[in-house]
Amino acid sequence: MKIVDFAKDQGGSKNGGNARPDRMKILEFGDGANKARIAPAIEVRPAAAPAPEPRWEPVSAPTASLAAAPKPKARSPFVGTRSLKMHVLDLGKLRLDKNFMVANSTVAMAKNPNPPGKLIDIPVSAFYIEHPDGNVLFDTGCHPDWAGPNGRWPQNLQDVFPVIGPDDCYLPHRLEAMGIGPNQIRHVVLSHLHCDHAGCIEFFRKSNIIVHEDEFAAAATHYAKRDHSTPYALRDFETWTRLDLNWREVGKLEPDHNIVDGVKLLNFGPGHSYGMLGLLVSLRDNPNVILAADACYTSENYGPPMKPPGISYDSIGFARTIQRIRALAEHNKADVWFGHDIPQFESLRKASEGWYE
Ligand SMILES: [Zn+2]
Ligand SMILES: [Zn+2]
Questions:
Q1: What pTM was estimated for this model as a whole?
Q2: 81: CA distance to ligand 1 center in Å?
Q3: What number is the average pLDDT over the span 68-84?
Q4: Which ranges in the chain are annotated with CATH 3.60.15.10?
Q5: 204 C-alpha to center of ligand 2: Å?
């Protein structure tokens, strides 16, 4: 960098009268050559022709599939220390309109104003867990005497979702066929008290009957009011009140905890019904399993995207529970076994064929 003195360069004398009084200095960067600074000529271009108005052109659809690639499943961590065996019990089916399971399964539209409803047969199930510290049963299915004018279920329930299955499809027959008596079950966990899950509670007089406190209160309220419009079978409830059952209520704020080693009670709270419970079962040779029951009926409800059922007590609670189940499944590398999923239940090994451990 050097200082260039304009007055000197132009040959003027420092003392001469021609000297410019206001000597101008500029700072120049470079190798010292005082090059003339010529402003670049401004090119004047003719004004561009106005752009044509954009036309409404659709974007062609992407050709690649938007479906996410399935993630490989890591091996499940075995979180229990004691080995257990889980038996899947097939307790017949319910025949009902699919709109109960997935809302808006049948939708009328101008070109199809009266679409037929879709009747489907959904599985009813229970799970018997053989454990060295005390056997656990999750859900109990329907009462064998659900039908008829003196049946446990009111006529509206008998009409809306009748049981389809042989006479021996009910829980007492299934356990008896395995050589198991009611007193061999230490804990009966009820996902909730609807008639297709709580129908056989009365057979377990010595067991702990584990139910969410809000579910018990709701069923008791419907019973007190003689309200037959819900899926609680009030004749079942009446029978329970006449027995000295060992109810163990789960508080709404009670955290998830092990009932026995490797069998964790999941306190889902309100959603499908007033107070939902599930189980996380830790298996040694198979993926861990979350028994979701009606907290999530089917894989279609689970999604993603989550699809709501036709009826639920608390639809926001239902959605929140699905998110919770998804997080639990990821964290525990667990499969989710849904409450009434036809293809999934068909794929499971039933008690007559073996067990999961
Ligand atoms: Zn239910
Ligand atoms: Zn159900």
A1: 0.80
A2: 33
A3: 67
A4: 85-347
A5: 20
